[in-house]
Write a structure and sequence with these properties.
heterodimer; A: mainly beta; seven-stranded mixed sheet; B: mainly beta; six-stranded mixed sheet; four-stranded antiparallel sheet; 12 strands; about 0% helix; about 50% strand; globular
Amino acid sequence: DTGVSQNPRHKITKRGQNVTFRCDPISEHNRLYWYRQTLGQGPEFLTYFQNEAQLEKSRLLSDRFSAERPKGSFSTLEIQRTEQGDSAMYLCASSLGGAGNEKLFFGSGTQLSVL
Amino acid sequence: AQSVTQLGSHVSVSEGALVLLRCNYSSSVPPYLFWYVQYPNQGLQLLLKYTTGATLVKGINGFEAEFKKSETSFHLTKPSAHMSDAAEYFCAVSDSGTASKLTFGTGTRLQVTL
């Protein structure tokens, strides 16, 4: 497999601007996850998709955050009106889902810096 | 709610010495337990997992972990550390219902010295 791909690798933006990140999962994987990781912390779950359906959203995901996975392939995560507290590494992961397929494959992440 | 506690944010061992990274979990349902490793500028990689069955699980790169229900622990060990093991290690827990939604610990940075 070619792995999980995330773009861009780095994003610097000014407070109040909107940003969008893209994740391309491993092609046969039907589950896609977004996590957020801040310095010195472990990744925190944000949301996940089974195919194109968004099945769960964390309370961490405020109304300014929206994620989509049209056609069950790539996914986008948009943050509107960014705040300095949004600065973090945004991680995408994918998996086959189902019993015996609990392993998540992570991308290298998008590092967001909000100035 | 589930949670994971990793004791020791930094662990330093000599090359060839035993590696022991501690993880305790809290879960109201039978847990699935994982160790992931993160090398600099790389994505997290699965080292090993426990779902059901044998409580001693072996993973990649010579690592293993033992699920101890009575101690709510899932410590990671390796008999002999190698310089290439230097990385950040994360313990994670999920429940069997949503097996891939993980709750991670805060991580332990492993340093290996000559």
